[in-house]
Amino acid sequence: MPQISQLRRFAVPITGTAMVAGMLLVGTPASAAPVTTTFQTACQAKSVLTVDKMTTSSVTVDAPGTVSPGETFTFRMQTNASSYPNSDSGATTTNLSRLKNDFTLPSNATFVSAAIVAGTSFNLDGVAPTVIRISDAGVEDANGPYLRISGSNQVVGNGAANSTNSEGGIRAPKTKKNLDGSTNSNGDSWFRLPAIDVTMVAGASGVIQPTIRTAGTAANYGDDKNFNTQLARASFLGGTQWAPTRCSPRDAKGNANLNAGAGPLATISITSAPVDVETTTSLSVPATAITGTAVDLTATVAPNNAVGTVQFKSNGAAIGTPVTVSGGTATLSHIFDAAGAQSVTADFTAGAGFVSSSASAQTVTVSDPAPVDVETTTSLSVPATAVTGAAVDLTATVAPNNAVGTVQFKSNGAAIGSPVAVASGVATLSHSFDAAGAQSVTADFTAGAGFVSSSASAQTVTVSDPAPVDVETTTSLSVPATAITGTAVDLTATVAPNNAVGSVQFKSNGTAIGSPVAVSAGVATLSHSFDAAGAQSVTADFTAGAGFVSSSASAQTVTVS
Asked: pLDDT tens across 235-247, in order?
């Protein structure tokens, strides 16, 4: 009895910390919530004596609630954690080895693969756990009806390498630790076999229900084909005791009926979804656009009762948020922020009952807006008069004074000179008019980039021919040195040049004497009688006619007696 009693806690119920840790290690590869099936397990350990023990076991399955016909799906299964004592009834436990769990592949689905889920086992060593597909005889078989978790199929029986008195396969070493890694106060050693992910393809209809292995003789009490078997090793009175143990789901020892543990661990329904309606999406965009200016991008989805959203993209990047389709259309008002060719697409993501579709790419050529040219005003400043042949300045003033361009001056509509560049708002042309008369002068500003051309109002310049240049003259005086009162003497003025026209006014002591005398051939002579004796200071002033300049002779003295 001591060699067997050490196994009394195999597959004990998961409680407290063990339950929390166990649930956290079961992942969620499918959409439905994980389901844990808890059931009583009857275990038989055979050594020198046979010991029967009732325990509580559980299997947690994480599987989708529904799948479609032909759908590839994955479900996950993991058995509960267990522990064994350090010693009991004088026997000291060494370890457990040759651990294995068997599951039945469900019907209505085609097996694809099965894999150990990393990080879901605890306190195992020996041969690394693997999952294989086996036949009823327990040997690896690609068409076998069962999945087995073991270490290289080294088990107590119904395997490829069987033994009831030697360690092998997966081993649970003595650690005296709980599932959270803390030291167990009673010296118990906790362990857990890993979870497995099973991938299958759903059949045409019905339900898919994974179970533990209970078919055939696996349903018998204490059979090597039982879903859970292992080999316990203990020392007692200096000797080694081996206790191969086999467990099956039943509520009593012996060949009592199987319980709920032999039933479905989860139910996956195969549902035939309605056939989704195919859609087509087309895209309408403007051929060109200006940066900073909004344009409409419109996707049309057929049929027009399709539900879903459209994501517009430009050069592969999403623009805006998805737009809900209404009446078969979805429109996005979008502003492009960079110039260049933009390849616009529209992806329709369908709602229930419809199939998504995408529109062919359309190109929008985006350009930057042309700058707004600045308005200008031009004014003109000219002299009121001018003389032919004499240069005058014609000045155009352009506002604003940073305007660039040239000014073409015109007179009576004809261009005069070449266009003059505007500098700091001013353009000046020095111009000589070649004909007398009224000249209507204008100035036309031809703007450079960024400005608008303008013209000045016409201004009038009155142009006249120049006046002739008057000829300088010189006048000399010839008088007698003496004269007698009452007796006439000649006073003669000579004007050079001798073609000068005009008259000479003779004066005596500053007083005009006689009338002005016309000059003829350069000479003007006055016959004059002095009426008073004394010295007379005689002068002659030449008053010039047209074309000549007046002049005066130096005074001459006549002594009158």
From this structure: 888 889 999 999 9
Residue 115 lies in a domain: yes
Residues 84, 189: one domain? yes
Which amino acid is located at 131 in the chain? V
User: Would you say residue 268 lies in a domain?
Assistant: no
Rounded Cα gap, residues 333 and 349, in angstroms: 19
Contacting residues for 455 by C-beta, under 8 A, at least 6 apart: 378, 442, 443, 444, 445
Q: How far apart are CA 340 and CA 332, in angstroms?
A: 20
pTM for the whole structure: 0.49
| Structural domain contains residue 505 | yes
- Give 452's strand partners: none
Which CATH number does the domain housing residue 360 bear? 2.60.40.10
Nearest to 504 by CA among 473, 460, 468: 473
Of 313, 341, 367, the residue that ends a domain is 367
Nearest partner of 503 among 468, 548, 538, judged by Cα: 548
- Alpha-carbon dihedral angle through residues 179, 180, 182, 187, given to the nearest 10 degrees: -10
**Do 472 and 448 meet the contact criterion of CB atoms below 8 Å apart?**
no
Q: What φ, ψ does residue 58 adopt, rounded to 5°?
A: -155, 155
* Domain co-membership, 295 together with 158: no
Burial degree of 151 (CB within 10 A; 0-12, 13-18, 19+): buried
CA distance linking residue 266 with residue 501, whole number of Å: 145
State the total domains in the chain. Answer: 4
pLDDT at 27 over 90: no
Helix/strand/coil for 3: helix
pLDDT at 33: 82
